[in-house]
Specification:
- The protein is α+β, with helices and mostly antiparallel strands and about 325 residues long.
- It has three domains: about 120 residues, no CATH class; about 110 residues, Alpha-Beta Plaits; about 50 residues.
- It has four helices and twelve strands.
- Strands 6-12-1-11 form a four-stranded mixed β-sheet. A four-stranded antiparallel β-sheet has the order 3-4-2-5. A two-stranded antiparallel sheet has the order 7-10.
- Strand 8 and strand 9 form a beta hairpin.
Length: about 325
């Protein structure tokens, strides 16, 4: 691998949406990730078929896909787990050279048709991919596009992560209180996400010499230009999982196969307060509330007496008139 002292696994973005109204000052954060084994996989193989006519290309393609699906069925993969996806049908061209006395012209002429189809194969165990690659090769299919991973109950995973993150957030708040800093949360923000193996593969190249491509060498005080031709280096891929150091806790941290990495980050905006002053304010507010309630009761009693007095005056007036 090329020497790169600055290489670092690419982290995931745990920041909240910057366009939200969430205030990023005075905050506590708790981030948790879980490595989850996929509950299902889909391997996608690509086939291309050329023919001088559409019928010829389609007949040859159908024979290849039928052979492949029949071979899969013989090895225990039911028809319901296989889907043939037509991708494209395009004309192909060849170039014809037309020479004249003073010119040459290259003309494109129709040469036939090319059909592309993808074969989607569903399976449950990751180790089955090796058998699928072998079966595809026997059917002369050598292009595996990708392997998709899926989880049946992603919401249940998020619920577990959310519970763990909240426990960590409250623990951080308690540690602040032990240090004499008392706070209360005024708002909570959450960022959740997942990283699938197909997104986490990186490419690297075999190590190469430190020699420059071209340099000057002096012989007998005469400069000679020397060119260094590099050999073609192999390129390959490796699985680069989300780094653990981004998180307060990683559930199932040790993995021996690519997994779906599900994560959640909870940010709590808080206000700092003085417990003694807060208690005094609460006591004062209670006294004010009690006084307001007492005044309201006195006002109600006064209105009742006023109504009774007015009622008596009305009755007395009626009696005097009689």
């Amino acid at each position: 691998m090329e020497s790169n002292p600055n290489y670092e696994s690419k982290p995931v973005n745990l920041a909240l949406n910057p366009s939200s109204s969430y205030n990023y000052s005075n905050q506590l954060e708790a981030s948790v990730m879980m490595n989850v084994k996929a509950t299902g996989y889909v391997a996608i193989f690509s086939l291309s078929q050329h023919g001088k006519s559409i019928e010829e290309a389609e007949t040859a393609m159908r024979q290849r896909t039928e052979f492949f699906t029949r071979f899969l069925k013989q090895n225990g993969i039911a028809d319901a787990l296989v889907f043939i996806d037509p991708v494209s049908m395009l004309p192909t061209y060849e170039t014809e050279l037309q020479e004249k006395k003073y010119s040459k012209t290259f003309n494109e002429l129709p040469a036939g048709f090319e059909i592309k189809k993808n074969v989607h194969i569903s399976f449950k165990e990751q180790s089955a991919i090796n058998d699928l690659i072998s079966m595809a090769a026997k059917a002369e299919i050598y292009d595996m596009v990708k392997v998709e991973y899926s989880l049946e109950d992603l919401e249940a995973v998020y619920a577990q992560l959310r519970n763990e993150a909240m426990n960590i957030l409250l623990s951080k708040k308690m540690n602040m209180e032990k240090a004499g800093i008392f706070s209360r949360f005024v708002s909570i923000g959450e960022k959740q996400g997942s990283a699938y193996p197909a997104e986490r593969y990186l490419q690297y190249t075999a190590a190469k010499t430190g020699m420059p491509a071209q340099f000057i060498q002096y012989r007998d005080k005469k400069p000679t230009t020397i060119t260094y031709n590099y050999a073609e280096k192999n390129r390959t891929l490796f699985y680069d999982k989300v780094p653990d150091k981004q998180f307060d806790k990683v559930i199932n941290p040790v993995v021996n196969e690519p997994m779906v990495q599900v994560y959640i980050s909870i940010k709590g905006q808080f206000q700092i307060y003085d417990p003694e002053k807060d208690a005094e304010d609460k006591a004062y507010n209670k006294k004010v509330k009690d006084l307001q309630l007492k005044l309201l009761e006195l006002d109600v009693e006064a209105k009742k007496k006023d109504i009774e007095l007015k009622g008596k005056n009305i009755v007395q007036t009626r009696i005097e008139k009689k």
